[in-house]
Design goal:
The protein is mainly alpha-helical. It has a domain of 97 residues: Arc Repressor Mutant, subunit A, CATH 1.10.10.10. The protein contains 12 helices and 2 strands; from the N terminus they run ααααααββαααααα. Belongs to the DnaB/DnaD family. InterPro entries: DnaB/C_C, DnaD, DnaD-like_sf, DnaD_N, WH-like_DNA-bd_sf.
Length: 204
């Protein structure tokens, strides 16, 4: 390949705009190296596409297990580095995309974020996707992230709710959410407590 051909190929590939503030204040961003890599790829994606990426494709492009990408995106949302927005496309249909501007706004004011994602989050995302037999949508990813990071549900409890949903052939996060809320109202916060409650009910 000649120099001219190489330059032409480089120009044809395009460029991604990236704020220098993200590098200058990386230490204050509160992101781990892996989170910063995923954030960088999401930045590229938002500048070259109109909708959120399919995580299978994103994971392959990054060279990272998909379940790790799920967990990292959930953490980025929790840390207010990105947010999920819905907007109409050219045909007037709603589509989801990731807005990467919140992190830039924060580092410009030097406000650190130290919230860490819930443990075992990646396994929860993967387990639900496997049982549902399809990739999770961005909205579904956000819902699961909310269970882990905002509601602070035990990952094992979410897996138990998934099992209950599958046994009832209800492949829906809404159904799982009703199960989790029912347990929460009854102050059942661990798998052991749920199982003990079921045993007690069966003995009545």
């Amino acid at each position: 390949m000649t120099d001219d051909t190489a330059i032409a190929a480089l120009l044809a590939a395009g460029q991604t705009g990236f704020s220098n503030a993200l590098f200058t204040h990386y230490a204050e961003s509160g992101l781990t190296p892996s989170e910063f890599v995923v954030y960088s790829f999401l930045t590229y994606w938002t500048q070259t596409h109109t909708a959120a990426p399919v995580l299978d494709d994103l994971a392959k492009q990054i060279g990272m297990p998909k379940r790790d990408v799920y967990a990292i995106i959930s953490s980025l949302i929790q840390k207010s580095a990105i947010r999920l927005v819905t907007q109409p496309d050219a045909q007037g249909k709603s589509s989801d995309r990731y807005d990467v501007s919140p992190l830039i706004a924060r580092v410009l004011t030097l406000a650190p974020a130290t919230t860490k994602p819930a443990p075992d989050a990646s396994d929860v995302f993967s387990a639900i996707e496997i049982e549902f037999g399809r990739p999770l949508s961005p909205i579904e990813q956000q819902t699961i992230g909310g269970w882990l990071n905002e509601d602070h549900y035990d990952p094992d409890l979410i897996r138990l709710a998934l099992r209950e949903a599958v046994l009832n052939q209800a492949y829906s996060l809404r159904y799982m959410d009703r199960i989790l809320l029912n347990w929460e109202r009854r102050h059942l916060t661990t798998v052991a407590q749920v199982q003990a409650d079921e045993q007690r009910r069966n003995q009545i």
